[in-house]
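stage 2 :: seqdesign
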């Protein structure tokens, strides 16, 4: 029974963060999901600085770590699957750090604080781990518990996430649309995680 719920945590985490970001945004006056980063909900001095990590980062970090651990414990898992599980666990750890160390209220400040630098590093870990995890699933041995369609799907989600990340960099430079492309890039990864979760159930 525990294995069943552990396998579902990839899907549950995606649903959780979708509602969590929406709910936190409701408590942030005039919050703009198109132009503001998700992390601005927990930024230093924001109206939802304390609320956002407790409804998003902290519970999500546990879900990601447990789900990643479940992947590493699959019977006869290959080294590729084991690495995938480790990456998802690091994704969870990065999620916790990104919540504990808030970003600066102004994401465009030229001199970010030490806490913001730690937050940004954790954010990079969060993005990179779920960009690499599908790659290892895609190249895992044919004997692994994934169908050919899911290998193709994994590659396509990585390409889509990379595309939206490039668009995010451009949007950040012009200070318009960064929130939208951050969400598209990350939620593309979360869609992969959700499907992976269902594949393992």
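stage 2 :: out
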């Amino acid at each position: 029974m525990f294995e069943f719920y552990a396998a579902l945590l990839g899907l549950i985490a995606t649903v959780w963060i979708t509602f969590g970001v929406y709910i936190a945004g409701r408590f942030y006056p005039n919050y703009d999901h198109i132009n503001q980063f998700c992390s601005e909900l927990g930024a230093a001095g924001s109206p939802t600085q304390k609320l956002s990590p407790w409804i998003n980062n902290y519970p999500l970090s546990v879900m990601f770590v447990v789900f990643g651990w479940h992947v590493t414990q699959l019977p006869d898992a290959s080294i590729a699957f084991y690495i995938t599980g480790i990456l998802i666990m690091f994704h969870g750890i990065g999620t916790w750090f990104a919540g504990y160390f808030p970003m600066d209220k102004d994401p465009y400040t030229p001199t970010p604080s030490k806490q913001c630098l730690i937050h940004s590093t954790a954010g990079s870990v969060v993005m990179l781990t779920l960009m690499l995890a599908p790659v290892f699933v895609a190249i895992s041995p044919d004997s692994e518990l994934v169908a050919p369609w899911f290998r193709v799907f994994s590659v396509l989600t990585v390409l889509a996430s990379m595309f939206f990340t490039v668009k995010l960099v451009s949007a950040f430079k012009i200070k318009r649309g960064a929130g939208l492309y951050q969400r598209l890039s990350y939620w593309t990864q979360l869609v992969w995680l959700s499907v992976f979760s269902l594949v393992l159930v």
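stage 3 :: structure notes
- The chain has a mean pLDDT of 94.
- Residues 148-174 form the longest helix (27 residues).
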